[in-house]
Specification:
The protein is mainly alpha-helical and 148 residues long. Helices cover 68% and strands 10% of the residues. The protein is built from 6 helices and 2 strands; from the N terminus they run ααααββαα. It has a two-stranded antiparallel ribbon with strand order 1-2. The longest helix has 29 residues. The protein is globular, with a radius of gyration of 18 Å. 14% of the residues are buried.
């Protein structure tokens, strides 16, 4: 029996997370927390609601995670100047070296996962997975428009 592409992608992502978490255990940062930090580096000042949507967690789950990251000195909340009920999220300078370490760890996991592949094969794999993601993203956006 051949596994479906969805099963293979999901199982591979699970294995990536497991390996990443094992390598970052000493830092106290999980793969999900690393995603949060990465998105904050990409989108400084993002609000918690949109960030929760990006990483696909409930807002209360993200709020607790931000609490822990803030207690660790990695993230800070700042009042949103356009909405006094909202908070914008930013990385602290203390987060930068950790984020560099997390990026190096992610590169090491990818290198191990793609061992034995040529550079052209790695690029093709990346392009194909990106196309799958784009197709699903368009479909998701289309469904959202249909429900409005």
């Amino acid at each position: 029996m051949s596994d479906t592409i969805g099963f293979l992608l999901n199982d591979t992502a699970r294995m990536f997370r497991r390996d990443f978490n094992a390598r970052t255990r000493d830092s106290g940062i999980t793969a999900l927390q690393s995603r949060v930090l990465t998105y904050l580096a990409r989108y400084p000042g993002i609000r918690q609601g949109p960030l929760a949507e990006l990483i696909e967690v409930e807002p209360i789950t993200l709020s607790r995670m931000i609490d822990r990251l803030e207690e660790g000195g990695l993230v800070e909340r700042r009042a949103d100047p356009t909405d006094r009920r909202a908070w914008q999220l930013y990385l602290t300078t203390q987060a930068e070296p950790l984020l560099d370490h997390l990026r190096q760890t992610a590169r090491a996991v990818v290198a191990e996962a793609t061992e034995g592949m040529s550079e052209a094969e790695r690029e093709m794999l990346s392009e194909l997975v990106e196309r799958v993601r784009a197709n699903l993203s368009r479909r998701e956006c289309q469904k959202e428009k249909e429900t409005i």
